[in-house]
Design a protein that fits this description.
Chain lengths: 612, 534
């Protein structure tokens, strides 16, 4: 990082050097006036006065400049400078005569009393020198400050920062960018960083499925942004429009609020992705996703509410729909969700005596030939085996063609009656990103170069799921949309933006993925770390340990540990709160009906494209 | 406006200096130094000497008034400025200006310092009493909030606890002798009562100095340590001998004898300040309705973070210290703490200790430094505290021996003192860098932070800067002057009996360069000694 010397520091340096010279001259003249050879020699260690002055004065000037830089000017206190000078002089006595001087003469310093008493004259000398230097520093800067009062304003808050960086998105990428920029810009008042996010917390998405299965409390996997970002200006708002030509982002804090313009010098896009429904009929209306804390809570409440109703339902056909749970998409999210749903239902089944275990159906539909395509075939096979051993129906090479309130229709023409359809079959970049006037890839993500700069735009950077970033370790293939990549991209983009602000070249993003972890519920997981494969209990242990260590903040870690410990000894909670607390008329069928009512009042649901 | 205030400051300072001069002058007449002062105006009578002395005292007091005029008002703040100022004038006056004005050569040698040692104590008392007088004269005290009963009660409790605990610890070590009032009564019940009474008095005094401490525990400890030092000078060396009828114990020889109580007083001050702060915090936590108490990040977040940073900073400081340790060759001795004797083990143990002390520094001094100056200031103060607590006290105890607080031991541990100061400087500076890197809170970001930063800036106006300087001056000067050479002793004697121009005779004698080797041969206290010794 380039050292920027502010006018105030320059003043302190110059005044310090001058006062060091004054202190040295006063001391020299005192010593020369009446000094004995003892005092003189003790002062610096040279017998001859000529060499003395030639070598001593520059060093005294340096010491003075250091004093000015370190202790600085405090207009409110005279005495501070005297005592500061004393302290500084004494510390220099240790460093100078006791240490450096002995080294200069070719002795190793032993810092013994014997040496110290030999150097005692110089202790007095340095002390006097320090005091004189301190007081003359104060006098010099006081005169200076009186002549140029505007330069010496001490604590004023800057009215407008010179440069603005705006980060859009409060996920892993955006928060890590803002956090890293706080570190890089510590002490810099010129650059202001603003982060705009829908929610006021950073969601730890890898553990979202555990919240859906009532294993963790919702708040425990979320870290408040304002606590994590001390100096960043955090705005909880919806992004409405980005004007890349005028370099302004328009945000709206609530539907009734006025849109606010956020001018930027550099913009970092970290808006993430939204579910993609590929235009399938009824799917968007009759399914739920698992992307937000609210989704997770809603899914949990929905499943428990279904069990409540099934327990009282006498119609077998209705019961079948209520007790069938379908997850579409066999990637990380889908696999973890079906496993956790299975765990949830089975762990609370004993509260519902009229529901038979044989009535339950869990279905994972996947369009590919094998689930978990991100993992190596052996581990995916293991996962498939585990799921099937639990009687989870895993339908491979199966697509969903549409959904109704009664169930889903598959590509082979089968219709499955279900009230629970979880959609984890695809994501697409945030709609706002898709509309930017720049290069996009097939799914609509902005294309970045290796320094994370968006191709075709100036001063716009992008990280995370909304961007296609070349992975230099994989020959330029796009980086996978994982949290570990988003985190590292955020850090790199922070460095590059700071570098750009200081007129330095940006560096390419390089990161070798550490590994993949998929929890399969009930003390089982699969893990692939740097090519090493783990499965079963060991993998489950690694899964929990790694995620625990990655959770932001000690407090949340402790809370999650507590949750997990309690989960070991006590049954899961089935209390229904919020929208599903009482039976509602809308609870007829289908997850959308089950839970969509409160959604209408929800705010900030931009991920579903409502704002646009 | 400013000029009028300054004029008032100088005037009151001169008056206060007069009061301080009276105290010092009384001591001077006991010590018989007044004729030396009189020789400034080519006279030899003590009366003229006293007059000259009073004039000087008033002038010096005036300068003091001008210097501290902007500082925060209050006994607790001004007192330490006075002490530091007095010490500075010992170096400026008897060691520098006096010889210059008398036409004698300037020596600045240990011998000269030893000869002028009684005058150092005098200057300290002069500074303290000038400061006290100035506070009384200024009168525009800040409006007191709340009663003083609570603080006084807490102070009394803290003083009692600290003296009792220290008494117990030292008794198990058979070292009651090393503590405060252990004067002539030994381990008598009366002696114990005396200790407790002394502790009570000191505790109440401390509470009156700082009824509502605003900074965190760490600075409080340093204040307590220097408060203990003041009690050593004012109590052990001055009042107690006078009460016992021996006259002032200011001569180098008797101060050397009393040096064994010096660490005890300092540790007592630290312990008392610690208990006092804890009690204050407890009361604040339980009964206070202040918003400030709630507006924190919580101990779990802030405390652990501070400890982590402190541990890292301690590691850095510890590595600096290692250089001194290797030079002293004491790493094997450190290893004996865990029953080993290899250098490598010693190194590891040393780093672990440095780490732990660093972590405690983080806890105690979090958010107390706003630039490198203050960081190093607190760091070296804490390092000195651990020199007293570590190699002088805990180390021998842990190795199964009684701590010996004699000048010999202190002399042998002088390299360790330098090491501790270097450790403290490294620790403080690194900790500051880590804190600043995360969030330089003194640079205002919002108005609220600006207000907080302004409050921290007021630090400069408290006695903190004076404390740092005082700690380092005392830490370096006392061991050197007290433990080195017997050359000083003889000349002290001459200054005591003869008065007159002792400085002059001494200086001429020392004009030829000292043969330090010879001094070492004569006095074991000055030679390099390794380790604390079992």
């Amino acid at each position: 990082m380039k050292i920027i010397v502010s006018p105030l520091s320059r003043r302190d340096l110059i005044a310090g050097a001058t006062s060091g010279l004054i202190g040295g001259l006063v001391l020299s003249s005192v010593v020369q006036l009446r000094g004995t050879t003892t005092a003189l020699a003790g002062l610096v260690g040279w017998e001859s006065w000529g060499i003395n002055l030639g070598l001593q004065l520059p060093s005294l000037i340096l010491v003075g400049a250091a004093f000015g830089a370190i202790f600085g000017y405090h207009p409110e206190s005279t005495a501070f400078h005297v005592s500061g000078g004393l302290l500084f002089g004494l510390l220099w006595w240790i460093l100078g005569p006791l240490t450096l001087m002995r080294l200069w003469r070719g002795h190793l310093p032993a810092w013994s009393l014997h040496e110290a008493s030999d150097a005692f004259p110089s202790l007095v000398g340095y002390l006097v020198y320090g005091a004189v230097m301190g007081i003359s520093f104060y006098a010099l800067v006081s005169v200076w400050a009186r002549r140029y009062p505007e330069e010496s304003s001490g604590l004023a808050v800057p009215t407008s920062p010179a440069k603005r960086v705006v980060v859009l998105g409060g996920g892993f990428g955006g928060v890590s960018a803002a956090q890293h920029m706080e570190h890089l810009l510590a002490g810099n008042r010129e650059i202001e960083v603003t982060l705009v996010s829908q929610g006021n917390y950073l969601l730890f998405t890898p553990l979202l499925a555990s919240v859906a299965s009532s294993g963790l409390e919702p708040q425990h996997i979320s870290a408040p942004l304002r606590a994590a970002l001390v100096r960043t200006d955090v705005r909880r708002a919806e992004v409405e429009r980005i004007d890349t030509r005028a370099q302004v982002a328009w945000i709206r804090a609530s539907p009734s609020a006025l849109a606010v313009a956020l001018p930027y010098d550099h913009l970092i896009l970290a808006l993430g992705s939204v579910p993609a429904y590929f235009g399938l009929p009824g799917v968007k209306a009759h399914s739920c996703t698992l992307k937000t804390l609210e989704d997770a809570t809603r899914l949990r409440d929905h499943v428990i509410a279904l069990l409540e109703r099934a327990d009282a339902e006498s119609d077998v056909n209705v019961r079948r729909g209520q007790l069938t749970f379908v997850v579409v998409g066999g990637g990380f999210a889908g696999t973890e969700t079906i496993a956790e749903l299975f765990d949830l239902v089975h762990s609370i089944l004993r509260y519902y005596p009229h529901v038979q275990e044989s009535e339950l159906r869990f279905i994972l539909a996947h369009s590919g030939g094998r689930i978990l395509p991100e993992l190596s075939p052996a581990l995916a096979e293991y996962a498939l085996h585990k799921l099937r051993a639990r009687d989870i129906e895993t339908l491979l090479d199966t697509r969903v063609m549409g959904a109704t309130s009664a169930g889903v229709v598959l590509n082979d023409g089968r219709a499955i009656a279900t009230h629970t359809l979880v959609w984890a079959a695809g994501n697409e970049p945030h709609p706002l990103v898709q509309k930017l006037p720049c290069e996009h890839n097939r799914v609509g993500a902005v294309v970045c170069d290796s320094t994370l700069l968006v191709k075709g735009l100036t001063n716009v950077w992008a990280v995370g799921d909304c961007a296609q970033i070349p992975d230099l370790y994989q020959g330029g293939e796009p980086c996978p949309p994982t949290a570990q990549h988003a985190l590292r991209q955020g850090m790199k983009v922070a460095e590059n933006v700071v570098a750009a602000l200081k007129g330095k070249p940006a560096e390419p993003f390089r990161f070798r993925a550490i590994g993949t972890l998929v929890g399969l519920g009930h003390r089982t997981a699969v893990a692939e770390i740097r090519g090493w494969k783990f499965s079963g209990l060991l993998a489950w242990f690694i899964w929990r340990t790694v995620y625990l260590s990655k959770l932001p903040g000690l407090e949340k870690k402790l809370r999650v540990i507590l949750d997990w410990t309690i989960d070991l000894f006590f049954p899961r909670d089935i209390a229904l709160t919020a929208g599903l607390a009482r039976p509602a008329s809308s609870q007829i069928s289908g997850v959308a009906h089950e839970a969509n009512k409160p959604q209408e009042n929800r705010m900030g649901d931009g991920s579903r494209g409502r704002v646009l | 406006m400013r000029r009028a205030a300054l004029r008032k400051g100088v005037l009151l300072g001169a008056l206060a200096g007069g009061v301080g001069g009276l105290v010092f002058g009384a001591a001077m007449s006991q010590l018989g130094i007044l004729p030396t002062i009189a020789s400034l105006v080519h006279a030899r009578s003590a009366e003229i000497g006293f007059l000259v002395h009073m004039v000087i005292a008033a002038i010096v007091g005036g300068v003091f008034g001008a210097l501290v005029w902007q500082q925060r008002i209050g006994v607790g703040e001004t007192l330490f400025w006075g002490l530091t100022y007095g010490t500075l004038w010992w170096f400026l006056g008897p060691l520098t200006l006096l010889p210059l004005l008398l036409g004698a050569p300037l020596v600045w040698s240990v011998g000269a310092a030893q000869a002028a040692f009684p005058s150092l104590l005098g200057h300290l008392l002069y500074g303290a009493s000038t400061a006290l007088a100035l506070v009384v004269l200024r009168r525009d005290r800040r409006p007191q909030t709340g009663t003083l009963y609570g603080p006084v009660l807490r102070g009394a409790l803290a003083g009692l606890t600290a003296s009792w605990v220290l008494h117990l610890i030292l008794k198990t070590q058979g070292q009651t002798l090393a503590f405060m009032a252990i004067m002539s009564v030994g381990s008598h019940p009366a002696g114990r009562l005396g200790v407790l009474a002394g502790g009570l008095l000191a505790g109440v005094g401390f509470a009156l100095l700082y009824p509502r401490p605003t900074d965190s525990i760490g600075p409080g400890l340093v204040r307590g340590m220097m408060y203990g030092f003041l009690w050593w000078v004012a109590g052990r060396l001055t009042l107690m001998p006078v009460i016992e009828g021996h006259g002032l114990a200011w001569a180098l020889a008797s101060v050397r004898e009393h040096f064994s109580t010096f660490p005890g007083y300092l540790l007592f001050g630290v312990g008392m300040a610690l208990v006092y702060r804890w009690l204050t915090m407890l009361v604040k936590l339980l009964f206070s309705d202040e918003i400030d108490v709630r507006n924190g990040e919580g101990m779990g977040t802030r405390g652990l973070r501070a400890m982590g940073r402190g541990a890292f900073a301690g590691l850095v400081g510890g590595l600096i210290f290692t250089v001194v340790m290797v030079q002293m060759g004491v790493l094997p001795i450190v290893a004996r703490l865990i029953g080993s004797s290899s250098t490598l083990t010693g190194f590891v143990v040393h780093l672990v200790i440095a780490d732990l002390i660093g972590a405690s520094y983080g806890l105690l001094f979090a958010r107390q430094s706003y630039d490198f100056g203050s960081a190093v200031g607190w760091g070296v103060s804490y390092g000195f505290l651990w020199w007293i607590l570590g190699p002088l006290t805990l180390m021998p105890i842990l190795l199964g021996a009684a701590p010996k607080w004699t000048t010999d031991v202190a002399a042998g541990l002088f390299p360790s003192l330098v090491g501790h100061l270097a450790y403290g400087a490294g620790l403080g500076a690194t900790f500051h860098v880590l804190e600043a890197r995360y969030n330089p809170w003194w640079i205002p970001h919002t108005q609220r932070e600006a207000a907080r930063a302004a409050r921290r800036k007021e630090h400069v106006l408290t006695s903190a800067p004076a404390l740092w300087a005082l700690v380092v001056v005392i830490a370096l000067t006392l061991p050197i002057v007290l433990t080195c050479g017997d050359q000083g002793l003889s000349s002290t004697g001459s200054s005591m009996d003869g008065g007159g121009s002792s400085d002059v005779t001494l200086s001429t004698r020392s004009t030829s360069r000292r043969q330090s080797g010879a001094v070492t041969d004569r006095d074991p206290g000055c030679g390099p000694r390794v380790g604390p010794g079992p």
